[in-house]
Amino acid sequence: MESLPPPAVRVWKVSGDEVATLSAEDALDLSNVRSLKRYLAREHGLPGFCQRLLQNGLELEDHAVVDFPSEPQLVMVQSHVVSPAKEWQLANSFHSRDLQQAESILGEPCDLRSVLRPILSNAAAAGHTEAVDLLLFANPRPGLNSLGTSLHAASEGGCVDVVRLLLRARADKDALISGKTPLSKSAGRGRMEVLSLLLEAGADMEKGSPLCSACASGVAEAVRMLLSAGADARTRAADGPPVYIAADRGDIDILKLVLEARANANDTSGEDTPLYRASFRGYAVTVRLLLEAMATVDTLVQGKTPLAAASGRGHSKTVRLLLKAKADKDTSSPLCSAIRNEHGEVVSELLTASANMEDAATGETPLGLAAGRGMAAMVRMLLQARADINKAAEGAEAPLCKACAGGHADVVRLLLEAGADRTVGSPLCSVCDEGHTEIVQLLLTARADKDACNADGRTPLWLASRFDFPDVVRLLLSAQADPNFVVRLDLWISGQERKTRVQAE
C-alpha cells in the first residue's frame, strides 16, 4: 500500500495539541509567515494579529520564509478593547484608505467586535479589496450579520474580488436583508461576474426571488443565466411571477426567455393577469407573444376584460390583436370605454367587428354617451354603423335630449338629419332652461312639439320665461307656442293625480 507523503507544515500549540496540518500542495501558497497566519485565520478562525508563531523558541517575523518541512508553535495573545478615540481613528483610516495606519492600530492587537460591521460593510461596498482582506485577517469570524451585510453590499456593487474574499470567510451566501439575498441583489443590478460566482458557490435560486429581481430590472443576461442554472420560471415575488413582471414592463426579450422556460402565460399577480397588464399598457408585441402562449383572452380584472382596458386607453394595435384572437367584444363594453376617452380609431375597429351597441352592465348606449358629451365625430361613426338613434338606458334620456341638454348644436343637427324622433322625451325642454337659441331653432325647424311638457309638467315656454331667456321666448312665441302654460301645468298635474288613483284602485 502506497504511503502518504509527509505534511509540509504542522502547527502546534505550546500544550502539544495540533492546530493545523498543511500538505505539500496546500503549502505551495505559503510565501512567508504572514501567508501562514492568513491561512490559519481563514481556515481556523484565528485572528491574525493575535497569532505568534515560534520556531526553536524564537518568534518568526511576518516576512520570514516558511521552511518545508517545519513544525512551528502557535501562541495566541489576548486582544484588548479599543478606546472611542481609537475607534474613530481606525474608521477614519479605512475611510481615507490609509491601510498602513489601520494595520498599526489593528496590530496592537484589538477587539473589533464593536466597530467591525460598519467598517467592513463600507469597505465591501466600495470594492476596497485590500481593506476587506486586512479586516478579515484581523477578525476572520466577524459574525454572520457583519459578513452578510458586507456580502450584500459587495454583490450589489459588483465587487467580485471582495465577494470572493467574503465567501472564503464563510459569509452566508443566502443571507436575507429586506427580502433580498446577495444573489437577488447581483441579479437585479446586472452584476454578471458576481452572479456567476454566487451560483458556483451554490447560492439558493429561490430565496429572495433573484429571477424576479432580474426581470424587474430588465437584465435579460441575468435572467438567461439564472434559467440556465435551473431557476424556476414559475417562481414569484411581491410584484408577481416573472411572466407578469416582464409583461408589465413590455420587456419582449425577457418575456420570451421565461415563456421558453415554461412559465404560465396566465400566472397572476393578485387579480391581475399578464395579458390584461400588457393590454392596458398597449404593448402590442407583448400581447401577441402572450396570446401565442395560450393566454386566456377574456379574464376579468376588476370587472374589465383586456379588450376593454386596451380600448379605454386607445391602443388600436392591441385592440386589433385581441379582436383577431376572438376576444369578447361586449363584456365590460369596450366600445363605451373607447368613446368615453375619444379614441376614434379604436371605436372604428370595434364597430367594424360589430361590437354591442349597449353597455350590458349599465344599459348605457354608446350613441347616448357620445351625444351627451358632444362628440360629433363619434356620433357620426355610430350613426353610420346604424346605432339605434332613439334608444336610451332605463331612466335615462334619449340621445337627442342629451345633446340638447349639453348644448351641442352640431350633434343635435346630426341626430335630426338622421331622423331622431323629436317626440321621445322633451328635447325642447332639455334646451330651453339653458337658453341655447341655436338648438331651439333647429328643433322648431324640425317640427319638435313646442308645447311638450317635461317630467315636471313644465313647457318649453315656461322654462324659457322662468330662467329669463327672452330670445328663446321670442322664438317659441313666433312658432305659436301656447302661452297659457298654467292651464297646461294644471292639466298635467290633474292627469298625474288621476293616473295615481287608477293605479291605487
TrEMBL record:
UniProt xrefs under PROSITE patterns: ANK_REP_REGION, ANK_REPEAT
Which SUPFAM superfamilies does the record associate with it? Answer: Ankyrin repeat
What Pfam families would the database entry show? Answer: Ank, Ank_2
Kindly list the organism's lineage: Eukaryota, Sar, Alveolata, Dinophyceae, Suessiales
- Per the database entry, which stretches of residues form a coiled coil? none
Q: Which organism is it from?
A: Symbiodinium necroappetens
Do you know which InterPro entries this protein is assigned to?
Ankyrin_rpt, Ankyrin_rpt-contain_sf, E3_Ligase-Neurotoxin
Protein known as: ANKRD17 protein
Asked whether the keyword tRNA processing is assigned, the reply is: no
Report keywords, A-Z: ANK repeat
Quick one: which gene encodes this?
ANKRD17
